[in-house]
Amino acid sequence: MEEASWIRKMFEEGCDLKARCGLENVCDFSLGNPCLEPPPKFQEALESVVHGRFPGKHAYMPNAGLMETRVAIADHLTREHSIAFGPEHILMTCGAGGALNVILKALLEPGDEVIILSPFFPEYSFYADNHGGTAIAVKTGKDFALNLAALEERIGDRVKAVLLNSPNNPTGKVYDGESLAALGELLRAKEGRYGREIYLISDEPYAKLVYDGARVPSIFAAHPHAILATSHSKDLSLPGERIGYLAIHPSAPHAKELGNAMTFAQRILGFVNAPALMQRVVAYLQGVTIDVGWYQRKRDRLCQALSEMGYSLVKPDGAFYLFPRSPIDDLEFVRELQESNILTVPGRGFGAPGHFRIAYCVDDCVIEKALPGFCAAIEKYR
Description:
The chain has 382 residues and is of the alpha/beta class. The chain contains 12 helices and 12 strands. It has 2 domains: 6-36 and 291-381, Aspartate Aminotransferase, domain 1 (Alpha-Beta Complex); 42-282, 3-Layer(aba) Sandwich (Aspartate Aminotransferase, domain 2). The chain has a 7-stranded mixed beta sheet with strand order 2-8-7-6-5-3-4, sandwiched between helices. Strands 9-12-11 form a 3-stranded antiparallel beta sheet. The chain has a two-stranded parallel ribbon with strand order 1-10. The two termini are 35 Å apart.
């Protein structure tokens, strides 16, 4: 509990600040909670499903999910990755968090290690711990790129998986195809050395939120032991609906056994199955995405303004986070910003002290209102 998420800590402190100062007077960049509404096609699909009259709409289903939804996702992934997916490779989950817990429950033996890349989403270490594993953080390189030398040094005989997050939370970094291919070669070499599979797990809820014509390279092109975990929390702005899925590489040597293990894990972990209504809705929405330009405009405005003020930052490739350097201790600087009623999250919560995270999935007026406070804070410590 003492090591619980800094994101939630700052969000809860923000609730207290809003109660004291008034909601309209606080600039809250703490939580990655999209304020962009779902696309119109979502409302159309939702109304169609809700008003449809057919037996079993709310009934139990196979733990892997509704067949028609899994077929729709498999067809979509086949087009996206140029690999033939079938419904047997898809498991509908309670968001990406549910997917990752199902994956790790199925894969891990007590004492197994899971490599995570720093900076990382804070819950990853807890997810590994949930299932008897240990999360091992490996620092990324310049501009938060993959550090293959560091990974080669750290991947030993206890490593069962490498967990990526691209675009990354909190940096917005998209790992390029060349680096992923090199990582795949490294994992295959390590598998040969240690005589065990090492899985490449990619957490991609932000995969459709990329800018400047970027694309997230296919994880399945990099390694045969690849598993994708994702959700529609961000690309359809549905975080509260907890609807996501996992996908197993069709050519994985033990794809059938993996599917069976993860389906069993879904049941015994208590998820049972992903929400029925949302499964029916998203079956109609594969390939539909919110207006990504809405986030890109906010990224560009903040990056330009903060850079001109003197902040050091890497322009993100995707997602909706900035991760600037802090001019002083990151927690102290976050407290300084709170003096101007600006809520951010210290980098230590992501395994990267010396930075702080800004979640810019907010209205434009919040950004504009916060700029004078950001300027005053950096001027004080320049």
